[in-house]
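Pasting as-is:
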Amino acid sequence: MLSATCGFLLAAFLLTPKLYSSNQNVYKVLREKINVLQQIISYVNHFYFDTVDMEKVMDGAFHGLMEELDPHSTYIPAKEQENIDEVFKGKFQGIGIEFDILDGFITVISPVPDSPSDIVGLMPGDKIIAINGEDAYKITKDEVFKKLRGRKGTRVDVRISRIGAQPFNVIIIRDNIPIYSVGAATMIDEETGYVFLRRFSATTEKEVTAAIDKLLDQGMKRLLFDLRGNSGGFLEQAAAISNQFITTTDTLVYTIGKIKESNQVFLASPKKGHDDFSLIVLINRGSASAAEIVSGAVQDLDRGLVVGETSFGKGLVQRQLPLDSGAAVRVTIARYYTPSGRLIQRPYEDGNDLAYYRELYATDRESKIDSLKELRPKYSTKSGRVVYGGGGITPDIYIPYKNSINVETGKVLRSAKRPIFNFSSEYASTHPNEFSSFTTFRDEWKVSTPIFNDFLYHLQQDSINVNKDSLLVNTEFIYNRIKSEIAGSVWGKDEAANIRLKLDNQVIESLKHFNEANAFLKSLN
């Protein structure tokens, strides 16, 4: 201990002049470069042939500065900052609807659960045709936000057009609207629970705890935890979600940076964790940052099985710092490490973000990663299994995503007119007697040939020109989407997800590997 302390003091003494010298050099470079920047701005302002939007130009300069650091340090203009804050704080104030502009009208895709819109009974497919007495036809999305959002307790009057009813007026009192992290929580079968997590925001731990408790009450004995496409969020929330599955006093994640405040160790609290169900974590190349912290902890501590595709590979921690202008910078302050000591950050070239992100979309990405595996640093899980650093979280079981839909089906699926949603919500509204029980609907109700023909007619009426023969090749997929949208209209997002999972090849394949996941659970008990 003494020699370590003395060694540190000697090193500090020897390095002090260099640190001072280094700072002097930094300040000298800054002075010179700021002078050059001022000259450039002056020349552009005076000589450039056209009007110059200086705000846009300077924002571009700020973006360029941050991009030279690493792919995840960034400048955030003031106009973007409010939306980002809403997502990660987990709430905003308004009426609470997910909407789209369809045929010129604000169309309710889904009321947010427990929001003012949900309380007054708005339904999927409802069209808001007037706001505070003003016609809302062909309104823009920006105008919708301005008119429907507002301070808690304030009033907004809307006029609703609903299928099968005369237009009617509704008074809605604005309130805090939660932005949910959990996209779905449902039972796939009698013993398998499923939770899909979109992001890690301020409310994530509370939401995931509630979702797991709900599924345990429904008899869950094993859990498929879906982190596909989850690009991350708060570090503290990632540690808290990892702790949901860990009942030992292990390190969940730790960070190392330049300043003391950047060095953190997150330890599991055994009382918070669950060891009463087996676990599979599903990831893909869009699973990043906080999602990789969770999957890395589960893998390193042998709590469950990680399946899917190799994750994004982001092992850097950012802190968002406010600027006087209302903008912000997000600066990388540390690297994070999984319990085994892995840094999973992919290599990157300063300023070359295009190559960094393009690598994700390579069709042979997994084979390339596998061929380079022996060159990556090796680590051991708690039980001694070999895992790899330097390139994301490699799943224990590789399950590629398979998409069999053809061009014509894709055209229908991606149409801005949302024909499947419109058709399904109208069908649900006009056939209420068919949908008394979700269990019966899930197990017995089917899209019949007449219903599909009605859908084809709907496409025709909506001026969506498609090749019918091509759609017939993908009838199973289209039938599933229609059934899913009906479930969403009648019961909600959890039930809609439940139906869609029936054709999700990664989910279906994952369910075949619970024997391996059960073995991890047995080793804990």
